[in-house]
Amino acid sequence: MKTPDLSGIPSKPGCYLIKDREGKILYIGKAINLRSRVLSYFRESANHAPRLALMVSLAEKVDFTVTKNEVEALILENILIKKEKPRFNILLRDDKTYPYLKVTTNEKYPRIFIVRRVVKDGAEYFGPYISAKSVRAVLRLIHKIFPVRQSRDSLDNAALRRPCLNYQMKRCLAPCAGKVTPEEYKQMIASVIALIKGRDRDVVETLKREMVEMSNREEFEKAALLRDQLQAIERLQEKQKIDAASESIDEDYIATAVGEGGGVVRIMMVRGGKLKGDQNFTFRKVDDAAELTGAFMEQFYSASFSVPGSIFVNVEPADSEVIARWLSGMKKGKVEIVQPQRGRKKELLKMAVENAKLKLATFSSSEESLKETLGEIQRLTGMVGWPAIMECVDISNTSGISAVGSLVTFFNGEPDKKAYKRYSISTPGPDDYAMMAEVVERRFRRLKDEGGKFPDILVIDGGPGQLNIASETAKKYNPDQIVIGIAKGKERENEETDKFYLAGRSEPLPIPPTSPARFMLQRLRDESHRFAVNYHRKKRSAEAFKSGVDEVKGFGPKRKKLLIKEFGSLKAARGASVNEIARALSVSEKLAAEILENL
């Protein structure tokens, strides 16, 4: 192992980026003392867990950025991890995927629905929620309690129409039919928003007051509807309440469980003394519970989630004091990270830990199943090592036109989408063998030139012909390359008749129809086929709109749009004169004549 040059790293707070020989970032970390932290990775006496041991073995360079203090280092680390997504960091899913509730308060009769993006459009957004399941539950609850319209169309300045079935079922006030005034409807929406914000008591008081008013006015049907809403909210309050004396409490419970190669974090969010959401988050390639807890907290709370005053954990996070200071700055108030020792808090955390362990057991069993599947592939192919990297090549074309190739990579049995590659094929004519050879040649030549790792197994979507040409090409660069071809059987649409051939053998591999190895190889083949077909369609569509005029120097996409806007289409522009084209595009008559000639 070559140790990177660490001589220039200072003893100051900041972030460090560990890179491989190609300059790819392997790991991003923060430290109060950069020099001390980075040196600890490369000491001969260091006893790293497998994940970090592999990272250190690949490291050839360390870059760093000095910050004013450790909290600034934490913020910078979080930004860089989200941007770069390094291979050896513990990564939470992107916060852009978290759902929100949108209330279109900018409309005459507001709607409520789930969105994934917040935009400045005058509407109100609530969230993010920790899971789509939890936000759907909130939306169902709102529609159960309040007769909010569920249609997606805008009713601003719309003509009145017959009410739908929801009105007959008392699930909508039918604003589309003029059955409710905008003022009455928005009064209900105000109660909905108060409920979403957790102001249940305000909603209850408002509904009680309105119910009495409706009863006094002898509008008994409306009073009965308000009574039903009150009862539903009261049932919800009892169901969500943590205990009788906790109505003003905001706190989170974070339970971490780590097992063989994986980890689970379960978070329970309590707001206003009520359980507002709980969710499991699973992670692969985890071997340190404290690191997982810290990484989770940093990434989770930077995703716009509200920060409570107390966070209870079963494993104290790495850099706990720094995280607490950072969270206190976000909240603008003190935040404590505590391991509870007794009472209600300990019992709630215990419940979260038990749930995390149950999820980890399921997760570990799926990991074990994955290992068994890869072990079966290893036995079938006679491999000495482990099939960690499997790649599949597929070709897609229409009679040789718009020919493309795809390369899909599975790492330890799971798609590694960052490693997917697309190839625009230059081989002329409908020659599938030559096209396959071109893609394999380009892939393996580049791996050799750049010192990359050859795949443990190369899979080809095709029969013995494609398999042989791919194997011959790959073995020019890697003589020991294992290549498998998947050929369609007699029933082309029935995957059970697929045949699997190993390069160098005439007989297909004896893989039973229900074999997990068969399913994994087919999944790899299907993913490669999907990726190739999508690229082929995109390329074919782009080429269909090309014409000779696109090759004219000085006639780009903007002028093409102008021409179509002026004449309606390129075909219609053919009937125009040189002067008309020159005037429409503000170009010289010489260029206009060339454009007209090539239309």
User: Can you count the helices?
Assistant: 18
Query: What oligomeric state do the depicted chains represent?
Result: single chain
Stretches with pLDDT under 50, minimum 5 residues: none
Spatial extent as radius of gyration? 31 Å
> Major beta sheet, specifics?
7 strands, mixed
Strand content: 15-25%
Count of beta strands: 18
Total of domains: 5
* Mean pLDDT metric: 83
CATH-level-4 superfamily name of the largest domain: UvrC, RNAse H endonuclease domain
Provide the CATH topology of the largest domain: Nucleotidyltransferase, domain 5
Share of helix, binned: 40-55%
In CATH terms, what is the architecture of the largest domain? 2-Layer Sandwich
Distance between the termini: 62 Å
The computed structural class is alpha+beta
Q: Tell me, what's the shape?
A: globular
CATH C-level label of the largest domain? Alpha Beta
Helix-strand blueprint:
Blueprint: E1 14-19, E2 25-31, H1 34-42, H2 50-58, E3 61-66, H3 70-84, E4 100-103, E5 112-115, E6 124-126, H4 132-145, H5 165-168, H6 182-196, H7 200-216, H8 220-240, E7 251-259, E8 262-271, E9 274-284, H9 289-301, E10 310-313, H10 320-331, E11 336-338, H11 343-381, E12 389-398, E13 401-411, E14 414-415, E15 421-424, H12 432-450, E16 457-461, H13 464-475, E17 482-487, E18 499-502, H14 516-544, H15 557-567, H16 570-573, H17 578-585, H18 589-598
Parallel strand pairs: 7-10, 10-11, 12-16, 16-17
Antiparallel strand pairs: 1-2, 1-3, 4-5, 4-6, 7-8, 8-9, 12-13, 13-14, 13-15, 17-18
